[in-house]
Amino acid sequence: xxxxxxxxxxxxxxxxxxxxxxxxxxxIPISIHCWQGDDVRGFEQSDSALSGGIQSTxxxxxxANTADELRTNMEKALSQIPGAAKVNLHAIYGDVKxxxxxxxxxxxxxxxxxWAKSHKLGLDFNPTLFAHDKSSDGMTLSHPDKNIRNWWIxxxxxxxxxxxxxxxxxxxxSVCNLWIGDGFKDVPADRLTPRIRLKEALDEIxxxxxxxxxxxxxxxxxxxxxxxxxxxxxxHEFYMGYTMQxxxxxxxxxxHFHPTEVISEKISxxxxxxxxxxxxxSRPVRWDSDHVxxxxxxxxxxxxxxxxxxxxxxxxxxxxFFDGSIDRVTAWTVGTRNLRKALLIALLEPYKKxxxxxxxxxxxKRLTMLxxxxxxxxxxxxxxxxxxxxxxxxxxx
Length: 397
Description:
With 397 residues, the chain is an alpha/beta fold. The protein folds into 2 domains: 1-16 and 350-397, no CATH class; 29-347, Divalent-metal-dependent TIM barrel enzymes (TIM Barrel, Alpha-Beta Barrel). The protein has helices at residues 3-12, 18-26, 67-78, 110-118, 146-170, 192-205, 236-246, 267-271, 297-308, 328-347, 351-359, 363-373, 378-388; strands at 30-33, 85-90, 122-126, 174-178, 183-184, 215-220, 231-232, 249-253, 276-281, 283-285, 287-291, 315-319. It is globular.
């Protein structure tokens, strides 16, 4: 009797169908971020430094220098990652050398669309509102200069069109996520006016309605960044209000909150008021440092919140980390596999039984069950899944 057969029987004894869990796990798409592969450089051939609190450190060899190199490296990672996948692009990753960001078009990303079709992948998109001369003073969509605001507004409008093109061509909705690093290094005198300008800019960007079967619009908050430590225009409260008012998706990034906050605690509350949630799963270390995702307590808690409350239909799950100190293909592979492992652990819970114990105020039973689940043989189910998908069971060597 092999390990999976034993595990299958043990889970069946607590009312869990491992075969159903494997099938559901395999169909959950995870959006893998392209920017791990080149340290968030992109292909504009711009000398602009990263800004808005973004910083990739390390000089491990092998950083991709072209789109073809990046795609080749992603193919290697994907060959070791089981399950449905999408690839998440920033606007600086198209065939955009010499093209201004407010002039980008779907044709500049046709090579990505062709590649995605050939590998049966979806694509997501992000306007790039950092690392540019027009963001050098720390403001973009909230800039006091209307000409600069309009320049970035046009970039975001075109990004939505590109995202919709992805959705039409690939047959699955593309998530277009908008994040800006606007803010002040020191305490501002006026917190309101930049937010008024940002709201007006967003109203203009999202004025044109796009079929959500092609494009899902999301906005992403941040607590602070390097150079904007004291005030961020696009705060969590700002975007939470804006998404509820305008029926957009809200992005929760694991590193964009206070050090003691975790996004697993926010998911259920926000799900009551926001139609769609986008997750950027990362691992903050002291701040939003975007470390490779580990299979830790918070990652499992995020997965449990999604699965326990049946939020998959209203959830887009993506990754966001970039570590230049280790092999970048391995970073993608380890991080993405860990997220899928966390989802499997969540799928193997007898949640209805846990819920019944809780509703009956039988907290002793709830505690006992939760602790016993930690030593259930989920690893045997993972190994069976990997074997069926013809990917490595283990990366250890």
